[in-house]
Design a protein that fits this description.
single chain, Nucleotidyltransferase, domain 5, alpha/beta, 180 residues, 51% helix, 5-stranded mixed sheet
């Protein structure tokens, strides 16, 4: 029996899963969402190793383990674009971490999309310049997160929530358009 376009969209929306990733030089926060009212999984991955190669290899292998058991539907990955940073060494390290993450997920067939900090803050708080405390408070209220996580978990949850909102909007308005 053929499904209507509306039924197909409802099915796609029901299977939608988004991972939000917040990269920092000290660790990576990953939050998985299926719905807009509760976090499915929160992971904090500290980055170990002083040498660049060892540090990036550690990230790659930890991510490989984290995504090895993923079953369809594969989640859409939203990763924060590096914000404006005055220290070029910090920016270089963030870019290396982000590049490793994007390569890990893309090589496994995941869709990876980048989002700017003001864009995800605007999508979830209504204010593109929201403070870390505002983001944390809102994620605790909206997703039921506890108060004992590192700040990066709340940021990753916000990134995932913004990605979920964008993907739902894309599926409702133009499911063929992949530019969002």
């Amino acid at each position: 029996m053929l499904k209507t376009v509306e039924e197909m969209h409802r099915t796609q929306l029901g299977q939608l899963r988004v991972l939000g990733i917040d990269c920092q030089t000290r660790g990576i926060a990953v939050v998985s969402l299926y719905r807009e009212d509760s976090a499915h999984k929160c992971i904090w991955l500290p980055i170990r190793g002083r040498k660049t190669g060892a540090r990036l290899a550690n990230i790659y292998f930890v991510l490989e383990k984290a995504i090895a058991g993923s079953s369809p539907p594969l989640p859409i990955i939203y990763i924060e674009r590096p914000p404006y940073v005055k220290n070029y060494i910090t920016l270089l390290r963030l870019a290396q971490v982000q590049g490793t993450i994007i390569a890990s997920f893309t090589a496994r067939g995941f869709t990876v999309k980048e989002i700017d900090p003001p864009a995800w803050k605007l999508a979830v708080t209504g204010n593109g310049n929201a403070s870390k405390e505002q983001v944390k408070t809102l994620m605790m209220m909206r997703l039921g997160l506890k108060d004992n996580f590192p700040q990066d978990i709340y940021d990753a949850a916000s990134i995932a929530l913004a990605g979920l909102i964008k993907e739902k909007w894309r599926l409702r308005t133009n499911p063929e358009d992949d530019r969002c």
